[in-house]
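S2.1 Query sequence (UDP-glucose 4-epimerase)
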Amino acid sequence: MAIRRLDVTDKAKELIKDLVEKHGELMFYQAGGCCEGTQPQCFEKGGYYPRMNDALIGYAEGFPFWVDRDLFEYWKHAHFTLDVLDGFGPGGFSLETPLGKTFKVHYRLFSEDELADLEPVQRNE
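Output structure tokens follow.
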């Protein structure tokens, strides 16, 4: 079985469930830009359009988690764990912001064995 690139904490799963009840289907996008930094953003499905060659690294509770193509090149050797914190992050466009929450990603480098058996990445065409 291939090694996942993305996991989700229980606390983030709870928040995703609440957001789905309020907004319906979701999507996640993690940019490498200036305004939101590298904070993952949560949108209603179709509320953001990934760019050419952005990377779909996995699914957070069944919803796609896209990473900016340039940021992915930097972090392609790392596992992402989606978490949530109380408070406001640097971005204000994400659906959890009005709830006083912010999604956050914890990173760890894959081991050599894990790198040899990673799930494939889907690129936006």
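The longest helix spans residues 10-23. Strands lie at 6-8, 26-30, 40-44, 55-60, 63-67, 78-86, 101-109, 122-123.
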